[in-house]
Amino acid sequence: MKLLDKYIARQYFTTYVFAGISFVSLFIVVSLIENLGSFIDKGIEAEQIILYYWSLIPETILLTSPISSLLASLYITGRLSGSSELTAMKTAGAGMHQLLKPFLAVALLVSFFNILNAGWLYPKAAALKNRFETQYFDKTFENISSSNNLHILESRNRILSIGSLDQQNNTGLNISLETFEGPEIASRIDAKKISYDETLDRWILHETRTRVFSQNGMSYTLNPGNDTLTLSLSATSLRDLSIQPDEMDIMQHYRYIDEKREAGFSNLDRVIVKFHNKLALPLASVIVILTGVPLSARKKRSGLAIEFGISLFTGFIYLGLQRTLSTAGYRGLLDPVLAAWLPDLLFLAVGIAIYKTANR
């Protein structure tokens, strides 16, 4: 069976690659035809256009990989069934689980590549794509956090308020830092400006006014110079406020969420959904195998048009679910982790049910 497994794995991988290249090529051609007039009107150089479409390839591969995987599994299994090879395998005692092995082995490798793609390749490409669309298409992106009137929970008993923030230079204006002891305020520091000194590894408060509250009253101290301050919020964390989640590699994305939670940031649902999508979407290429192989193995013959139609229909259902549930997660209507993983879980349940039915 090892030789047969290699044969099936090779055929599945070849078909998957062909389908993937076809989808990427089709997308680029359609997009180029749609935008060609704009490119000419804006006088965009050919080199910039080539780089732009090069930056779209990782995302297109990631989105179409489940469809390509399903199409390849349907086509190869249908061809085995139509040529009576599948019947011969069953006669030799090969069950559905043995038929699935080469498909799953290759699909796991594909998913591993897509995790690398989603975690590292796509974020770099997304940064290039976003810059191009901002410059030439006047596209705007929703900030994951506002740069004005920030209120950050510091060390669980301090609240840092920043009137306005310059994310590039890590400076803020109109600063206040309130420290609490239980429900009572213990002290408050007001400053005109806050900046980060990389040499000292400290935050610097400029022109501070400090009030300390006690049972005996309030003491007031004015410092026209600078005070150093240690915060749990890092300079990198503030700078990352200007980065879109799609532009973060998976490790940077994880640290971003962890630091924001530690610093008391709220409204992280969108960022959390995006992070888990970078793991859930690549695994879909494996999950659809549980649907494609048993479904195609039940038919005597299957035409390419039927296989292609089933793949597109199923793929659009998956991507539609993924987009709809992600939006619900962004808006807090659904737990963000569940919103990212629910399409995979639903398709896994359907796949297991089809597998059990076909294995009887």
UniProtKB/TrEMBL annotation:
Protein name: Permease YjgP/YjgQ family protein
Family matches, as InterPro entries: LptG/LptF_permease
Places the protein is found: Cell membrane
UniProt keyword terms in alphabetical order: Cell membrane, Membrane, Transmembrane, Transmembrane helix
One Pfam family, short name: LptF_LptG
TM segment ranges: 12-33, 53-78, 99-122, 279-297, 304-321, 333-355
A biological-process GO annotation: lipopolysaccharide transport
Membrane topology, record value: Multi-pass membrane protein
GO cellular component annotations of the record: ATP-binding cassette (ABC) transporter complex
